[in-house]
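Record minuted for completeness.

…
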Amino acid sequence: MIKKAIKYFQRMLRAKIRKLLKVKKMQLNGVWVELTHDNISPELKDFFYNESYEGEEIGILSKHLSKDDVVMEIGAGIGFLSTFCAKQIGSDKVFAYEANPFMIDKIKETYKINNVSPTIKNTLLSNKEENINFYLEKNFWSSSTVQRSKDAECVQVKSTDINNEIEQIQPSFLIVDIEGGEKDLIPMIDFQKNNIKKIIIEIHPHVIGEKEASDLIAHIISKGFSLNFKETKGIVFMFERK
């Protein structure tokens, strides 16, 4: 308990120093990130400064990502998790998708400064190939197919058939963080025809509703997955199937 308290205060002290110095570039969990971008708000910088950004996902990946995995990340953000995965298993086994067109250059920058090159596609995955409304929020992580605020900017984003993409890359590990879009996307996946064995997914009941979130969990379990209770924390869930 004392050791944990000491580590916590040390982390908070580092965070205060970084904030005071207005650190613009830092390394977190082996990934270098430039904290300079219109979509990186002071709130997001604080997550980096206090070393908590994507902490739950990194904790799961550190223990469950295998060298023979192929990763498909839906909702790449700034390219943080796909960079982490590429460093562990190689860039040729990591495929990232991001609907927000204004994040692609940032993702490529993250890849470049970390000397990795996962495949990144600027597209919205669905069961159709058409243009779909996508809502841009001030904080990029809130942007999705679900309008979260009245100030959100609506843009048209090209969609790509998710099952065609899965068939082409044959992922074994699926990572999903699309801010409410999971409610519609996950039921579109034909799990009977793919090799996905592990899923990390953020489920957002505050966006999609408690019942819808529960139904989504039940749907994933109905496809042969078990909920890993040990690794599931907050709204970050891990599912596995043998």
Remarks:
- The chain has one domain: 53-240.
- The mean pLDDT is 92.
- The domain at 53-240 is CATH 3.40.50.150 (Rossmann fold).
- The longest strand covers residues 153-161.
